[in-house]
């Protein structure tokens, strides 16, 4: 995306509070997702509902199908069966770029930032704003001042105070600051859904708090956020609803108000079973 502005959200184009956009219709809906890897079942008939202005946590033990589910929703994998809908429109993602064009942004554990580039360049990585006229269309020259200005504006709107110098190289940032850059980039371009895979892994307490605040800020701007995490306190502090995966299937959907962390672990391990009537399809 080379157009000026490149989809970066502003206060005029993005709601400031989830209540302004929260409705009865999910922004992302998946039904009956199945993914097979030879004889290994990655997903077996998984359903997902994500609403605007909501943080939906996805938890589960190793091998539960969390990563496979996220890759199917983000275009990294194509499900063998099932449907995915964005804003009540059936979509078929052949790549992560297809998902991005539909408004779904994903931040994986490896971050995919370019350490040698500055913060502004990383914010627009793969979506650089080109200079006007022949310089941009023919010579493909990048409009660095425009990218710096828009990146600075968005970081300011999100209330991010840990990134003081937009021209600072990412390789000089701490792990938490790098994660903030990656999450902020996803929020800037994800017009509907942001998927975060273990965003607080290997972070200290203070940096974890900064990232979780940013997650809540994205939710409050009306985005649907999917949060994958092994950290139960983080999940229960941040999520509106919690989708539990077990052995490739869906073990239940709970809320921090309806169940405890001990309940969540018991459901993950199979020690406790929920009936479909107990599932919180909407928080």
TrEMBL record:
SUPFAM superfamilies: P-loop containing nucleoside triphosphate hydrolases (SSF52540). It comes from Microlunatus soli. Pfam families: ABC_tran (PF00005). Keywords: ATP-binding, Nucleotide-binding. InterPro entries: AAA+_ATPase, ABC_carbohydrate_import_ATPase, ABC_transporter-like_ATP-bd, P-loop_NTPase. This is Fructose transport system ATP-binding protein. PROSITE patterns: ABC_TRANSPORTER_2 (PS50893). The keyword Chaperone does not apply. It comes from the Bacteria. The keyword ATP-binding applies. Residues 28-272 form the ABC transporter domain. Residues 1-22 are annotated as: Disordered. Gene3D superfamilies: P-loop containing nucleotide triphosphate hydrolases (3.40.50.300). GO terms for molecular function: ATP binding; ATP hydrolysis activity.
């Amino acid at each position: 995306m080379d157009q000026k502005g490149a989809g970066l959200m502003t206060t005029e184009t993005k709601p400031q509070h989830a209540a302004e956009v929260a409705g009865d219709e999910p922004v992302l809906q998946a039904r009956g997702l199945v993914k097979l890897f030879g004889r290994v079942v990655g997903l077996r008939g998984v359903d997902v509902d994500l609403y605007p202005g909501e943080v939906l946590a996805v938890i589960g033990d190793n091998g539960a199908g969390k990563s496979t589910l996220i890759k199917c929703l983000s275009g990294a994998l194509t499900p063998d069966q099932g449907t995915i809908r964005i804003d009540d429109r059936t979509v078929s993602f052949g790549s992560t770029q297809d998902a991005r064009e539909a408004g779904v942004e994903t931040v994986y554990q490896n971050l995919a930032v370019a350490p040698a580039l500055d913060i502004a360049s990383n914010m627009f990585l793969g979506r650089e704003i080109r200079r006007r006229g022949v310089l941009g269309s023919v010579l493909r020259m990048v409009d660095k001042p425009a990218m710096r200005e828009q990146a600075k504006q968005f970081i300011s709107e999100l209330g991010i105070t840990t990134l003081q110098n937009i021209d600072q190289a990412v390789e000089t940032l701490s792990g938490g600051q790098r994660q903030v850059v990656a999450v902020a980039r996803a929020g800037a371009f994800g017009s509907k859904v942001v998927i975060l895979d273990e965003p607080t892994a290997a972070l200290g307490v203070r940096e974890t708090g900064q990232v979780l605040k940013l997650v809540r800020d994205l939710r409050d701007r009306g985005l649907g956020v999917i949060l994958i995490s092994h950290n139960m306190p983080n999940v229960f502090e941040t999520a509106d609803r919690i989708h539990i995966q077990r052995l490739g299937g869906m073990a239940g959907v709970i809320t921090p108000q309806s169940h405890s962390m001990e309940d969540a672990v018991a459901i993950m391990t199979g020690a406790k079973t929920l009936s479909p009537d107990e599932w919180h399809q909407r928080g």
